Amino acid sequence: MTDRTARPRARFLAALAAGTAAVIALSGCTLIEELTATGVDEGGDDGMVLVDESTAPDALGFFEQEIDWQACDASLTAPEDYECATVQAPMDWSAPGERDPIDLFLVKRPADGASQGTLFTNPGGPGASGADFVAMSADYFFSADLRENYDIVGWDPRGVGRSSAVECRDDEGMDDYFYGVPDGADSMTPEEWNEWGVEQAIAFGRDCAMNTGELLGFVDTASTVQDLDLLRALVGDTKLAYFGLSYGTDIGAQYIDRYPERVGRIVLDGATDPTVPMFDVVIDQQQKFGDATRNYLRDCFSSADCPYRSTDVDGAIAEMQAVMDEVDRTLPKNHDGRVLTSGVVQMAITVSMYDSSSWQYLSMAFADWFDSADPQLFFLLSDSYYGRDMDGHYDSNMFEAFAAINCLDYPLITDPDAIRDFHERLE
Question: For domain 57-166+219-269, which CATH number applies: 2.170.150.70, 3.40.50.1820, 1.10.1160.10, 3.40.50.2000?
Fold first, then answer.
């Protein structure tokens, strides 16, 4: 049997990155004339065109829509003066008339004063809801000057949330994917776990294809960029004002590249490089998660409540790894019947590294485990990443959209030498 206790620090950090890689590469990746502007508003007061010769003739009808802003319904947590709307976009921008259109859901925070235009925003992901971001955060996230002078609009990109969305499994099926374990798991080798994981990922990808249909092939970021230009035109802005966070910077960067003449005021915060290969993205994430974990532990050692017996980083990492080894041998159950595995512990650690305010909860999770073998906080932290509530309901399709969008945006790497090199770099 393979030695599962050797090189704990290296294996632990590699596990964090491997968990991220598994989320990104779901294996579902393997399944998946000139303008005649009659009736279309061609320009604004400054002469800048809202649509031009690059717009396919059979897409012009989409630019003739009027946004019907209405009060948001009770399913969306938003202040009373916020407005909601749904518009349509081509499913396939390369052949706009050949497939059924898709819906794009928007939320607007109206400007407090005389509006100078619309500021569009995307909070990241991919898969995060821009509509929810504006509904819940615009009043405090954006400055008073911005709120005074701009309508702030968030939209759910194609594949996400209340827009035409990627659908893979129901709540029970998502639980099975994230938390299911195979028969005989307590005696499986790491290689057998990997084989089972690949089988699960392929099955998940097939479910996404079956339940989403042809939309699954059109949720790429390039299509979202064209959607954003449609939205810009529909609000009557000749140039785009945009604020993007994290993955939202990919959308902004691609917009700048595709429509340089339509760029207004754009801010990209936490920029990512969409040209970097996926394996390099994962390696970079490994390094950042590793740095964050070490920072967490150093901070923990300064507290009397730090749960680790060791007072050095490598020793505490070995304790974390020992917990993961132990739960894979014993497969303890949570109070709701779910089985605790190293994957759950890994995700609890990973999600806690995004924000130092979560470090205390990770320490509490390990303290509960060391004191009484109580796994509940590990599950709560993992659930918070996947959007699962206490009743077992997943409140968004962020994970499904995340996987589908990345599968289209990043070329699938199948070369055995490249994969072998990737795993060696993880170690």
Answer: 3.40.50.1820
Q: Which amino acid is it at 44?
A: G
pLDDT tens, position by position, 192-247: 888 898 899 999 999 999 999 999 999 999 999 999 999 999 999 999 999 999 99
Output the CA–CA distances (angstroms, integers) from residue 53 to 56, 163, 342, in the order listed: 7, 28, 55
C-alpha distance from residue 235 to each of 105, 134, 275, 384, 386 (Å): 14, 17, 31, 35, 33
| R_g of the chain computed on alpha carbons | 23
The domain locations on the chain are 8-25+277-409, 57-166+219-269
pTM of the model: 0.83
Task: Output 263-270 pairs: Cβ under 8 A, ≥24 positions apart.
Answer: 263/239, 264/117, 264/237, 264/239, 264/240, 265/241, 266/240, 266/241, 266/242, 267/242, 267/243, 268/244, 269/243, 269/244, 269/245, 270/124, 270/245, 270/246
pLDDT for 51-99, tens place per residue? 666 677 888 999 999 999 999 998 899 999 999 999 999 999 999 999 9
Mean pLDDT lowest for which of 22-26, 165-169, 320-324? 22-26
Rounded distance, CA 277 to CA 413, Å? 9
What is the per-residue pLDDT for 35? 25
Amino acid type, 306:
C
